[in-house]
Design brief:
By secondary structure, the chain is mostly helical. Helices cover 72% and strands 3% of the residues. The protein contains 6 helices and 2 strands, in the order ααββαααα. A two-stranded antiparallel ribbon has the order 1-2.
Length: 138
Amino acid sequence: MKYILLLLSVLGIAVSALALREHYRTEGDSPCSINERWDCGIVNHSPYAVLAGIPVAILGIVGYLLMGALAWRRAYGSVLAAALVGLAFSLYLARIEAHVLGVWCIYCVISLGDISLITLLSLVTTLAPPSRKSNQLS
């Protein structure tokens, strides 16, 4: 499970980095400006893309780095705690996209799917009974 969570954390870092690049883009069209309903530029330049002066994408990078480090240490309960915070915040941002901005960001949607998978996998790993092999080693 460790390596799957690490891979998902790396995906989250990459997607958050792309969103951060979009946040600081000043010229040209957004590469993910698909139509009037899908435009990362609108989402990442909105007032909701910043929290306490920090771009939300940076918070995503830091959060995914933290979850990756915790997964590396096999601290799955801590990964779950961090993932639940991230999932709640991602759902809040999805609500903003759907009901306030009326525009979706493909990077944000990928991140929401990613944090959902991390939450689910860390929940299953945390709640799963220990294997017989690890009990015999103790």
